[in-house]
């Protein structure tokens, strides 16, 4: 019909407006032909025929005006289609009736107004419509030719002019129908070609639109990834980083909810949540939507969560959900989950986008996790270095104490031997021996520590009471 080939409402309106202009041309041509009928040699038309002819043109003009008004008021494509069909039927009835009205003259040319029909049909319904209109014209002309052959079967005076017998002439039928066929074929093929070009253009526009949509989606994903990176690196600890990422990505992509879960052993633990109350319980692998995704490593769309076996309710208003695994190489380190309060809110394209985003979030989370571990390692090394410094300070003090005693008593013995009794000498020697033993033990302890640090001693812990 009018909208065949995918024309939209506005295109159909433009088509009807163009046909209204064509119809006005037909009205003007018809009025002129009716008015000039008796300007040629007889037979002449009676006043009744002339008045009826002008009345038919008035009907066509009034119908054209009604079509114009209806086209402006129609708000649906089906309404435009019905208006167009009514207009074509009106044109067919009026123009064919005009040909019959002026059939008093076998050689009259008023029938040429009917050539508007194949043109209109071609514009409306392409080649098929044009050929259908030719069939209508053919049936009408054969019937009219039979009528005129019967009416003028005998010679006589008709319309003030003598006429010989008028036989049925296929040449007249072929000529009139041939003119309609030529117009129908030319207009029909042109309409088909233009329609194909329009369809190709529409398909190309659809491809461009799809490409633009994908580009926009890619830009949104890239923006979300950049946002995730910025939100992830601004926090020093992993939990705070993931919480920031969940909020930033959820707002950037306009999700109702977004949850980042990390795997800890055989459970999933929520680390970041956006759009709903924080869920603190641990989720075993294989339980609920996120647990199933973590266990299988495959993304999942759930159109209706109430039908999912073992669904874990975090928000009773949630109706649909999709989740994608967060991977580092072949290892699933977590799950990125999005939920909606509308049923069947996600499709495969949305899941594919979430899967790509999950891989990116996994990289950021893993990098932040490594950075946190690095910070912890640096802090531990700093503590160990401080402990080592403290140990060296204490060891130095402990070494100086026995050395000072040994040197002191040895110096006293050397300088004051003649004034020191044998008993005092023995006391000094005992002190020197005791401090030497203490010094030897300290040195042995230092050597032991050194060997432990070098990994030359294997510790074997045992339980003691």
N to C succession of SSEs: HHHHEEHHEEEHEEEHH
What is the arithmetic mean of pLDDT? 81
Largest sheet: 6 strands, antiparallel
Distance between the termini: 98 Å
Determine the fraction of residues in helical runs and give it as a percent range. 55-70%
Radius of gyration, CA atoms, in whole angstroms? 51 Å
Tally of contiguous helical segments:
9
From the spread of the alpha carbons, the general shape counts as: rod-shaped
Structural class: alpha+beta
Portion of residues in beta strands equals 5-15%
Question: Would you count the extended β strands for me?
Answer: 8
Quickly count the domains. Answer: 3
What are the low-pLDDT stretches, counting only 5+ consecutive residues below 50?
1-6
Strand order of the largest sheet: 5-4-3-8-7-6
Sequence-ordered SSE layout with sheet pairings:
Elements: H1 9-35, H2 47-73, H3 77-101, H4 116-151, E1 156-158, E2 161-163, H5 170-233, H6 238-252, E3 258-264, E4 267-274, E5 283-284, H7 288-296, E6 300-302, E7 320-328, E8 331-340, H8 348-415, H9 422-453
Antiparallel strand pairs: 1-2, 3-4, 3-8, 4-5, 6-7, 7-8
Helix pairs in contact: 1-2, 1-3, 1-4, 2-3, 3-4, 4-5, 5-6, 5-8, 6-8, 8-9
